[in-house]
Amino acid sequence: MEFWLDTEGRVSGRAINIRGATFTPLDSWRILRLSAARANQLKQELAKVLDRFQTEGESRGNVYLAQIGMARRSDHSGATDNPVPPAKKAPCTTTARP
Description:
Largest sheet: 2 strands, antiparallel
Number of helices: 1
Shape: extended
Helix content: 10-25%
Order of helices and strands: EEH
Distance between the termini: 57 Å
Structural class: alpha+beta
Strand order of the largest sheet: 1-2
Strand content: 5-15%
């Protein structure tokens, strides 16, 4: 991953794929609609996952940077929801005509 600040101070980034790499970077963003209680639950569960992987680290393993961020935002700023994935097309079937 490569990160930088643009001229207005906003953080931008991009994944850089390296030919032959055994691991590709993960950059995943989601817009979640949660109650405060569910947001706190998610925060605790994500922290537990990071803690587990950190304490179970392999002494000779590769070093990875893992980052999680979560913040409440107003309903009207930025994208209003996650993009809907395109519908899966039905498989194309053909029958031979005599």
